[in-house]
């Protein structure tokens, strides 16, 4: 998305959408990059797989459970999705569009 300023130059618009993240445990390889990138958002359970956790610190165990991405951790969560060897982390906007993860459109 871009818009023109008065001088005719293109100015990129900054996305301000809230983001949510979820982990597909069927694809998780347990490498732990996500836990290293954003331990406030990701955690291993006793099964060796990564799960998201809410602001209350509780793991969200139901398949497809999403949590909000804290604004200060957006880059870390997006990087974890991009670097995940299992390609199992999905970062989505409020409108459902995936911005990082296996179903995100490439630039």
TrEMBL record:
Keyword presence, Transmembrane helix: no
PROSITE patterns noted in UniProt: 4FE4S_FER_2 (PS51379)
Pfam families: Fer4_15
Required cofactor(s): [4Fe-4S] cluster
Domain 4Fe-4S ferredoxin-type: 19-47
UniProt keyword ATP-binding, yes or no: no
Key words, A-Z: 4Fe-4S, Electron transport, Iron, Iron-sulfur, Metal-binding, Transport
Matches recorded under Gene3D superfamilies: 3.30.70.20
Matching InterPro entries: 3Fe4S_ferredoxin, 4Fe4S_Fe-S-bd, ET_Ferredoxin
Main function: Ferredoxins are iron-sulfur proteins that transfer electrons in a wide variety of metabolic reactions.
Protein name: Ferredoxin
Organism the protein comes from: Micromonospora ureilytica
């Amino acid at each position: 998305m871009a818009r023109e300023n008065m001088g005719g130059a293109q100015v990129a618009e900054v996305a301000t959408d809230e983001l949510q993240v979820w982990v597909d445990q069927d694809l998780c390889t347990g490498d732990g990059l996500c836990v290293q990138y954003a331990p406030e958002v990701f955690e291993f359970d006793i099964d060796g797989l990564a799960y998201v956790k809410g602001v209350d610190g509780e793991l969200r165990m139901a398949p497809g459970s999403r949590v909000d991405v804290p604004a200060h951790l957006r880059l870390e969560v997006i990087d974890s999705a991009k670097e995940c060897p299992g390609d199992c982390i999905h970062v989505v906007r409020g409108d459902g569009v995936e911005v990082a993860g296996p179903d995100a459109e490439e630039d």
